[in-house]
Every structure is written in structure tokens, then in C-alpha cells.
Amino acid sequence: MVLLRVLAAAIVWVCFQAGFALAEDTAGQLAGSWKLSSWTIQIIGGEATEPFGPNPKGRAVFAADGYVTFVIVAANRKPATSNEESAVLLKSLLAYSGKFMIEGDKFTTKVDISGNELLTGQDQIRFFKLEGDKLTIRTAEQVSSVFPGKRVVGSLTWERER
Comparing 144 with 53, which gets the higher pLDDT? Predict the structure, then answer.
């Protein structure tokens, strides 16, 4: 009986280590800079929209130390010359960063810095598909930080920068 327990513990340990190795391998594949090529939001019970227009600019950087940073802005932004224009610029910016963890096709970012304080301290859960130099990220259904009060599912497509 003791031998069976030791064997079971050894099997669990090996499987546990394999899970860590797989997550580390995936994190290694994500490491680097990614350029945003599209961002759409499906409003639940409504239409799909491109919140920052058809050609948003963005960069995601997955670092080897387990941190990720996302910055997305609307295209054709102009420097602000007034407080009102500054407020408009802020509404066309989405940025956050934090430590990320991978589990299968899901990664969770523990947001510690954000341009929108509603995100700071929150876990951002995303699902991803990596195909060569193309990364597709989908959100779970959630309350939108872009469309307050609306439930949405976002989809972002990224191309690896070289």
C-alpha cells in the first residue's frame, strides 16, 4: 500500500512538472513584441464594433520574466491643445500591464498598472490561439471598460514584430 502511495505521488509530481514545462514553453513562444492588426468588440445583444476605428495601433510585449504590457490607441490621434482634447485622447487609449500566467489556452494578467484604474488590481482573463507569427486573443464575456455598462466579448489579432 505504501508503494502505491509513493508511485501515485511520483506520477502526480511528474504530471505537475510537465504542466509547468508546457506553460513555460508557451510563454517562451509568446515572448517578444506583437503589433495589433485588428480589434473588434461584440456587444452582447448588439452589433460588433471597432472601438478605436478600423486601423487601431497597438503593441503587446510579453517579457521573459512573466510580465506583459498592452498599449492600444486609435489611429490618427492629434496632439491635444486643450483640456477637452486631452480628455478625448485619454478615451482613445487602452493600456495595462502586469504579471501573466498561462493555463492551456488561457492566460491571466494580474493588472498592477493601467491607464484605466477600473482595471488596476483586477485579473484580466484572455483566451489565445498562436499560429506561427499570428496571435489571436479573445476575452471572456465581461463588462466593458470601453463601453461602460455593456457586456462584451473582444477579439484582437496580433502579428509578431521582427
Answer: 53
